[in-house]
Each structure stands twice: as C-alpha cells, then as structure tokens.
Design goal:
Number of strands: 11
Radius of gyration: 13 Å
Oligomer: single chain
Largest sheet: 7 strands, mixed
Distance between the termini: 37 Å
Structural class: mainly beta
Number of helices: 0
Shape: globular
Length: 124
C-alpha cells in the first residue's frame, strides 16, 4: 500500500484546509486510516483515525470539534477537514494505514504504511 498526501499550505489563524490522502494497492474494509502530525522538535502525535469500512472514528482531544476525518472508498481517499486552525496546529501532517483496526489507533508504531507528509502552517 502506498499513500500520497496533499493539501497542505499556509493559512491564517481561524482558517480552514482540507488534506487528502490517496491510497494505492489493496485496502479492504477493515483497514485503519489515520492522520498524525509532527512539529519540529516534537514527537509524532495522533490526530484522527477511521476504519475504512465505517463504524469507527477517533480524534485527539486537541482537534475534536474542529477537525473531521472522512473517506471516499470509491476514490481510495481519506480526508482531513481542518477548521478553526490556530498556530499550534502548525506541523507536517502524515497519513498512515494499517491492515486491521486497532484499539491502539493513536500509536504511530501500530501503522505499517506512511505517506510522505504535507506541511501545514498557520500564521498571520
């Protein structure tokens, strides 16, 4: 499975961005698809995850109510809609995938496949 992330950019505080991640290769309904982010000098942190076949969604507390993860299975794409962005959201955002949904969805070590990252900068 290969993942290609896109959609990052520079946005002012309070603005919005939508990230996309296209997955190529075989991904069945039980795949977990997630977004993580990593700021300079910090560890990679969980943002959001979903189960490709539906029924499972998870968000970090820091983004609940502001970010929405969604999927379009026909396009093999997972999205991260980010609203009410603030400077603390500035990071490189990575999409990730693993073969089976897991209760440890927030741990980077649980994921087998990673995209290349896309930079999100929130600044006036």
């Amino acid at each position: 499975v290969q993942l290609q992330a896109s959609g990052g950019g520079l946005v002012p505080p309070g603005g919005s961005l939508r990230l996309s991640c296209v997955a190529s290769g075989d991904t069945d309904s039980d795949y977990a698809l997630a977004w993580f982010r990593q700021a300079p000098g910090k560890e990679r942190e969980f943002v959001a995850a979903l189960r490709r076949g539906g029924g499972r969604y998870a968000y970090a507390d820091s983004v609940k109510g502001r970010f929405t993860i969604s999927r379009d299975n026909a396009k093999n794409t997972v999205y991260l809609q980010m609203n009410s962005l603030n400077p603390e959201d500035t990071s490189v955002y990575y999409c990730a995938a693993r073969v089976r949904w897991t209760l440890n969805f927030g741990m980077p070590s649980e994921y087998n496949y990673w995209g290349q990252g896309t930079q999100v900068t929130v600044s006036s």
